[in-house]
Please model this.
Amino acid sequence: MLMEDKRLDAFFTSNGHLNKRLSGFRLREAQQRFAVEVSSALARNETRMVEAETGIGKTLGYAIPIVLSDKRVVISSYTKALQDQIVNEDLKTAIEVAGPHRTVAILKGRDNYVCVEKLKHLGPRAAGQPQLVRDLNLLNAWSYRTKTGDLSEIGTIQPELKAQVTTTAEDCQGRHCSSFDRCPFFRARDRAVSADIVVVNHHLLVASYFSDTALRSAILDREFQLIDEAEHLPEILRSAVMRRFDFSWLKDLIQDLAVANKEVGSQDSVLIDIQQSFADFSKKLSRSGLEMESASTDPAAIRERLVDFLDSAESLLLNLKSILEPRQLQSRLVLKMLLSLTPRVEKIQMLAADIESQSANLWYDLGAEGPVIYAATQSGQGLPRYIDLDSTPKLFVSATLSVAGDFTFFQNQISEAPLLGLSIKGGFDYTQQVLGYRLGSDIAVDHDHFISNLIERVLPVLPSKTLMLFTSFQALTEAEELIRARYSSELFVQGDQAVGDLIERFAGAGAGILMGTRSFWQGIDVKNAGVECLVIDKLPFLSREDPVVSGYAQSLDVTQDWFTSFVLPDCAIRLRQGFGRLIRSEDDRAVFIIGDPRFWHASYADVLQRALPSFQWTQAQSDVQQFLGKV
Ligand code: SF4
Model:
């Protein structure tokens, strides 16, 4: 037994430190086994994959050995909400009981922190917009009070306002900024550099590999990486290496030009003219949808059209540069605009060169502000695997890393060489806590009446509190309309209000149905909401139309079978994530319903069935009532 294992005994036992510190602490053998695995990987500097079933107390299970290890560690989580939860709950407890000398910092992406420089310049632009003036006054007052500058402190913020008070790496002036000394992002980065343990999210972790040395050193100069909810990491890496370019910056630029024109002395005709040229270009882009769609059957025509847009943007920006250079001393805003032009022009030139030389695979989406362009490595050259980015030992953990104990799907996405993988079970007793209700009708998923048939069959058995997960907004909307006509309790529908508020209201209600699509499958926790039933409409297969998915498919070795090697295991893991919303504590008992007949009859059905934990199924409504104690 490793020395570290013995130290863990002082925490994961019935009279240990955790039991004394936490009122609801339950001794779980699986949690202790997981902590030993983490401790062993830390001590041996080994890279491993550990799947820890939901309910074993995974976060505390890794927080204690990390704090005990005395190593400089980065912990990465999938979402920013989870980052906050790790730091404020489990890691806080671990520090208190296992290592009060250890320091912790949290670091998020730049666009999560208020840019005090932008906030300063927004005042003049807000004139004549009473709502914006009110919001800005509140933000200003908060910006002087906050210790972190993290916008999540002020709750939900309108995306339009957020975009106006945060900045991007391209637009940030860094050390040249007059507000640098009180910049929340740079302060957070400095705290991260000196902390023993830094908690980031996967997007920032991946971005740091392709970023400046200061960000790299804050996050990556560490002896160990623990990547929680690791199943999301490969997709994020794929998105990061597929260069994305859009024209949303035009709006800010046009507004900045209007303000700069006032600052350098009203009615500078040259500035007015260039502002108008950018506005005309912006209008042309927002009308580009029809043009692009009419050219969509001809790849050469699409490439030509995209290069035209990029060439126009480049020449406008170069023209602007020559106009701003002689005026740079007249206003800070002019200087700021000038500094942001060169990196943007370089990005455009590189993208246009890739498109023209056909050295990258290319996709585009049509947004309201013009095309969003994606470019990725050509087929055959492959996409990088996470493990090859550096030699730091890494522990990949999650409740859903394998398909019925087989780690091949996840491992192939992060490493060419085999890795050690281990599943730790023992979370919940699904045989006692879940009953599957098999619907009597097997109508095909592409049938016009699929959703109406599903709702018809599930409504009679629904208990007081139900969670419904859909694979598309279209299905959700159709189901919502049908249920509203026949259901007396309240519906809590994704999109009606901020997700956190929606779940809080649902949890507080005596009865109701919470309805959501893809982001609800893995991103919400309905613990203590009294959910007694989960309904899933269809199997969550990937859409080939997603540019990132399509890019990955094209970059795979053509000898691989796309469906069995990628689509099917991905669906199995997503299904298990959705199922994972159902049981959140040892006291939960709930019914599971899946409407998709492919779960029972498809040639691959056994893969999906084995991906879920074992529990009983019934076709009798009376069994459901009895199971839920309603008879
Ligand atoms: S340094 Fe960058 S992010 Fe910070 S206040 Fe200045 S412009 Fe904004």
